[in-house]
Design brief:
The protein has 221 residues and is mainly alpha-helical. The chain has helices at residues 13-18, 39-48, 57-66, 68-92, 102-121, 146-161, 195-220; strands at residues 124-127, 135-138, 167-169, 180-182.
């Protein structure tokens, strides 16, 4: 699966960014797959996730082609935002992940704050064309830093406005993938990132195990 096939299961662009890294149970020799391993895949993901629009992508691509250092700086910034948000969510949402490193989660929130301050400094106030308010803050007006600026703005939007009680983690202890999503179901009962993926896979695995156990019990009787 490449980034163009990566399911957007989070229900919010910031959660979809968190889910660009595999987060299953670590085993010896396992290297988690990073779906935004290069600036080009980061740009493709940002477009698919709705972080930027099609008319903005060419300017970002041109700026990154012209300055590869800026491209890799944007990639590093987005990865830092991703991991900082992940740690913050583990510390603030009831995700049942065991003991939380309070110092690490506090440092992660500080990093998000610093990156948001930098993004705000590169933003611009403009009249609101919808007339809903006098002005609006346009985040991401410099192509080189547009993607990370929008990413950290999305992260802060999630932390400020989302119902933290509906933030869920696909349960690794039950065979899930560990991705995080916003449960928008009516009765807040969603368990899996996607039933078509982890939910179906775990159910099929359990059915196979039950059938194997039944055959072994029959053979031993």
């Amino acid at each position: 699966m490449d980034v163009s096939e990566l399911p957007l299961v989070g229900g919010h662009p910031a959660l979809d960014l968190v889910n660009t890294l595999e987060r299953g149970v670590p085993v010896p020799g396992w290297e988690p797959r990073d779906y935004v391993s290069a600036p080009a895949t980061l740009l493709l993901w940002a477009l698919r996730a709705g972080l930027i629009i099609e008319t903005e992508a060419p300017a970002v691509a041109e700026a990154w082609d012209r300055d590869p250092d800026a491209a890799h700086a944007a990639l590093a910034a987005c990865r830092d935002i991703r991991e900082s948000l992940h740690l913050t969510l583990l510390a603030t949402a009831a995700l049942d992940v065991g003991p939380i490193d309070v110092a690490a989660s506090s440092a992660a929130l500080d990093r998000l704050h610093c990156r948001w301050l930098a993004a705000a400094g590169r933003s611009r106030l403009t009249p609101d064309p919808r007339g809903a308010s006098a002005v609006r803050l346009v985040v991401g007006v410099i192509p080189e830093s547009l993607v990370p600026d929008r990413a950290v703005d999305a992260a802060l939007d999630l932390l400020r406005t989302a119902d933290i009680g509906r933030v869920r983690r696909c349960p690794t202890e039950s065979g899930g993938c560990g991705w995080i999503f916003l449960d928008r179901s009516r009765n807040a009962s969603r368990r899996w990132c996607r039933m078509a993926d982890c939910g179906t896979e775990v159910k099929a695995r359990r059915l196979t195990e039950r059938r194997r156990a039944a055959r072994q019990a029959t053979a031993g009787s």
